[in-house]
Amino acid sequence: MATTSIEKEDAIHPGKPVVVDRYNLGARINHWITAVSLILLALSGLAFFHPSLFFLTGLFGGGQSARVLHPWIGVVLFFSFAGLFIRFWRANLPEQSDREWLAHANDAIAGNEEKLPEAGRYNPIQKFNFWCMSLLIIALILTGLAIWDQYFYEWTTIPQKRVAVLVHSLAAVLLICIWIVHVYAVIWARGTLRAMTRGSVTGGWAWRHHRRWLKELAERRRFKKPATPAE
Amino acid sequence: MTNSWTDIRNTDLVVIMGGNAAEAHPCGFKWVTEAKANRGAKLIVVDPRFTRSASVADFYAPIRQGTDIAFLLGVINYCIQNDKIQWDYVKAFTNASYVVREGFAYKDGLFTGYDENKRDYDRSSWEYEIAPDGFAVVDETLQNPRCVWNLLKAHVATYTPEMVERICGTPKDKFLKVAEMIAECSSPTKTMTSMYALGWTQHSKGSQNIRAMAMLQLILGNIGVRGGGMNALRGHSNIQGLTDIGLMSNLIPGYLNIPVEREADFTTYMSSRTFKPLRPNQTSYWQNYRKFFVSFQKSMWGDAATPQNDFAYDYLPKLDVPSYDVLRYFEMMHQGRVTGYFCQGFNPLLAFPNRQKITESLSKLKWLVTMDPLETETSRFWENHGEYNNVDPASIQTEVIQLPSTCFAEDEGALVNSGRWLQWHWAGGSPPGEAKHDTWIMAQIHLRLRALYEKEGGAFPDPILNLTWNYHDRNEPTPEELAKELNGYAVETLYDPADPAKIVLEKGKQVVNFSVLRDDGTTACGCWIYSGCFNEAGNNMARRDNTDPDETGAYPNWSFSWPLNRRILYNRASADLQGNPWDPSRKLIAWDGTKWSGYDVPDIAPNAPPDVVGPFIMNQEGVSRLFARGLMREGPFPVHYEPFEAPIANVVAPNIRGNPVARIFQGDVAQFATSEEFPYAATSYRLTEHFHYWTKHNVVNATLQPEFFVEISEQLAAEKGIAHGSWVRVWSKRGEVKAKAVVTKRIKPLICDGKPVHVVGIPLHWGFTGKARKGWGPNSLTPFVGDANIETPEYKAFLVNIEPTTAPATV
Amino acid sequence: MNMELSRRGFLKAAGVGVAGTTLGAFGFTELEAAQAAAVRPFKLTNTMETRNTCPYCSVACGIIMYSKGDLRKGETAEIIHIEGDADHPTNRGTLCPKGAALRSFVNAETRLKYPMIRKPGSDKFERVSWDQALDRIARLMKEDRDANFIATNEAGVPINRWTTVGFLAASATTNETAWLTYKVVRSTGIVAFDNQARV
Amino acid sequence: MEPSPRTATSNPPVAASATAANLTERDLVRRSASTVPPPARQLEPVAKLIDVSKCIGCKACQSACVEWNDTKPALETNTGIYENPHDLTPDMFTLMRFSEWENPQTGNLEWLIRKDGCMHCEDPGCLKACPAPGAIVQYSNGIVDFIHENCIGCGYCIKGCPFNIPRISKVDHTAYKCTLCSDRVAVGQGPACAKACPTHAITFGTKEDMKKLADSRIEDLKSRGFENAGLYDPPGVGGTHVMYVLHHNDKPAIYSGLPEDPKVSPVVNAWKGMAKYVGFAAMGLAAAAGMLHSAFAGPNRVTREDEEKAEDLVKEKI
Fold first, then answer.
1. Chain D residue closest in CA terms to B34
2. Distance (Å, rounded) from C-alpha B278 to C-alpha B295?
3. Per-residue pLDDT tens digits for B282-301
4. pTM, to two decimals
5. Does any CB of chain D come closer than 8 Å to the CB of residue C53?
6. Alpha helices in chain D (DSSP H)
7. Which of D151, D293, D315 sits opposite A188 (nearest CB)?
8. Candidates 3.30.420.10, 3.40.228.10, 2.40.30.200, 2.30.30.30; correct CATH number of B5-235+622-631?
9. Tens digit of pLDDT for each residue in A79-97?
């Protein structure tokens, strides 16, 4: 059970404060490629989604180039996210304790984390986001291919394309919503962002949000050289 | 066409048989759709294939190719049996009442006088009984058993609906429906038009196909009336003009004849061309033959044509055979008896039957000159194109000179449409590269040959050295100059014979029309039937007044229609014996008690009384001929003969193969197949997307119909295991082609004489040059035999076999 | 109803020239100079019109050729468009799929541009000048005519027949070309003279 | 109402003064992904009437269309059918479609030939679907036209069209279809196909006139035994500016799949309607929820105590 919530790169640097490695460089690059792709996709996609946002194609050098770029960025996103998926799917598998955690969702939203069961590497909301993202990205890539007329026109019928384009836009909307939640959560839970910039969090952050993860790391003696104060 | 394209709007019934007007003449076919939409006219299509014409027809009946005569004689029989005859017309305007001489008979498919060895008839019994006064004997009561009507009745009695079904494969009920619809047009107020083309001519008895329909039209009273007529839809833009101007072995412009060897001098020549009327008071317009002939000679050789030398009669070649038509000539070429050949805008390698023979023939030439705006297969017959033209260039010793000529857009002049309108056109584009006008090329050939004869002398140079050549620029005669020669002019000042002081026309002026031509050498006229096209009033061919009084479809002031701007031939026949129109709503001309007038130029002297002078002025009888006398080589009535390659034996004359008088060359007989080896009845045709072998050079048309195919029924496809759109091999005794298979419901097997007959349709537009995909045409397969009268090859009915195959190797 | 069109009566006799057209008849009484923001610019503006006849079948539809450049002014003229002549009584402006694509015939890649000769046994055409080609033809003709012309038959009757050279005439040339061809060919005594009428 | 051009009764003008275009921005009634002011004038609606019963399938319309529009459709092969090119393409705006139908009532073969191409819907699905402002416009006379400078090549028009008409060019990646020869109509001419059509199976004029003409054609067809002859002017798309006279108007599908009751697909309507609102609402709500949460709950900070707890834990285990 517990083994799943630890990744290879996770390690504790004793010190004051304690610093915990959460994401190695590869994971961070992978994440940011995904993030940038997603933002570009959202911007270009929204430009096609509603006329009032068509001006956003200007960011891509115009409508034609936005149309050309969007699906390619989609491909980048897909593979990039696939990388993240491979890295993190185990840590995002649901656990028995998640039920209990979710039963106290109000406390989670209110920030009363002490009332919650200890979370592993990811809490259930994060897991939910992860799986939503995964499913939506699969839906987007599949429907995206169906409407990528330049290369795949022959693969689907027009009625299928119509469904595809509708599903694609709804999936994109949902994905953007999930993304908003994700970004907000990062901002709300202070100290989170450094996990994806520096790759590490403070021990306090881990204690507060992912105590079980921290405990397990400690339990297994996953220690590295002490963090230098400068860090 | 006896009528014009625009006249078709006046019809009540259109019969498309022996043609596919919608597909081959779409814009002319417009007038069929107009007649349908505006007059409620009906359209019948009779064809082996359900064509695009059939797609808009009110009634379609299938027929086996090469059996049209049986069908048409069946309809005539139906009309006679059911008394659907326009009697007044038949009695007054046809030779129904003429009594045929004793000794004439028909039995077992042959008329009297047949000589099997010569494959020809002694036609002397096919004549009227002539009374001591020199006129033909007639029996207006039609009681005489030897009168034409009774002979006809007996002749067509064989062709019952059951017999038609047996021969043609047309189900009896469908035949009867067609016969019934046609028979309705025997009413004087209903007309039918016949639109036919190469589906009738391209048979070994093509002329008789047409005659059979002409006879039917006469019985129904449909010749000479608005919305009626026999309308040959000519294939090419100026094939009418080239025929009129007589670019044929045996013709002089205006349907005069080149002398034959036994006509040793002009007097002998003229002795058989007096055209004495066979009935009192008849016009027999050919009595003017001598005037036209002499005027032609004057236009050719001017001052060198004098009364003393019989107007240079000897300058003309004299024929030892009826004609040196292309079939005969390629046969000669094949025998190595030809040195050089010119092809001006013509592609015989693809256009003539039995391509293998054509290739061999061209390979035996010393030289070949082609003149064309486009690449042709003929000019590259020596070039290897893999399976598509499998020849060895090194072994072909023919020198080929290819001359680039201009196309329509770059030249000026007149083209004659199917309705005999001479329409002038103007040049609008610059020729590509060094391409030159045909007139320049022909002038250059003449001038250089002439210069050689002037300098070196040689074989009989007189006709070359004396050829009239008084053009402003000797190197390139202008279209106007040439048109004026065709119209004719006064060589000397013409005086009125009744009043020698009165000048009719001054020397050098254009004649008003052929009525002023003379036989004494004082007039010149290149082509008498065109006379009037460019007279002192100017270039009448360039007229562009499209008014049409009372919307008759005549357009009398648009261009010029030969003869004399007449729009409907035999228009006198549109009125009854009192001179009143048969159908007042379709008046054409009428007699007002003193003269004829109306919407068209009368076909008869304007003051010729209606009850005296017959409408068919070119015939000695003054009436039309249901009985053709000796003018057709097969006989005075059509008879059903099978094609030389037929899927069944001739039901009415089982011992006769093909047309008994069609000319066949010995080498070709061995290449005629039987239905045992080659069971399927093939036919060739045009598609609407293409024009012969030209449009495969046109990227647009190539796109619209890119690749050679054959059409077969679903049943034949199933029998042979041929998949839709797959490759098939089609072969005859003369060659093979590979094509894509179009499997269609539009072709269905026919039951003929109890046996299923499968039709294989082979369109003709592909070759090895141009933009379209490389392919073959039907002429790799077609037999080398022609019609008995005019030698048109039998492209429309032959036998093949078919099997699935693989794609040809690409080259 | 379409047949009720084009009752314009007498038209100018000339077949060529720039024609003004009354747009008023089609509803736009006031022409505007407004910038066409959308529609493609009308491509026939400032072209020369020349009346001609479709060279394919014998319906002989009237056509109008639109060219850049005017032959009558001695300019080079390039045909940029061809369509049916609405004033023509037979076709009323309509054209079949061949006629409607005439421009692509005029400008076809496989139009011939230069005289060519293929020598015996050769596998290619070689370009020659017109003079070379025509002199060669005249010489070949004369050689054979002098050798094979039959002036009289056995009975001594002049028959003046030349059977060893034949001439196959076109089917789409003008009457005037046909007549000149007739004159030139007949004057030589060629009897193997034929045309497309037969096939 | 301003009268509109009719079927060309004259030849195209060539003088510069006579060829100013008369379809301008101010004649637009709809513009994709944007709004237009009400047009200054209302042109009389035009229509092309295709009388299938007069059509001989000669493809003159295709030929004239290619020549007028200077397109270059590719040379294909024969696949056992008469359709060439095999489908509409960015270079072939109109196509004759052939179907061989055996009439079960009469037993007769009927070769039904339909000229396919843009129907110029009154309620154009392509325009509705188009995301690019001004790439698809509709003029007050009913012509629906693609403006290539504005087209982004996304292919949404293909999804919007109930008739499967627009095609995206592989060359310039913009959508192409029949323009109803807007450039010709703008100077008082009919479309090139209508001008060329040998049998006048294609006619062009005011929609009202074309309906009258259709009535007379239907009457003629009924007199010839086609009881179900009728006009195809489908109301599901608000009527069309290209209409058919069909001998069997009760069975449009036999004409190479002409839609029975075409309308802009509900999926497309959902996509271009509901989805937009729902989508914006959802994204807005998500953002708003975040803001509200942040306002009420404040940031979730790691405390000193948390850090110490962590340090303690680590010390304990080392």
1. D199
2. 27
3. 999 999 999 999 999 999 99
4. 0.93
5. no
6. 60-69, 125-129, 156-160, 182-185, 192-196, 207-223, 266-272, 274-297, 304-317
7. D293
8. 3.40.228.10
9. 999 999 999 998 899 988 8
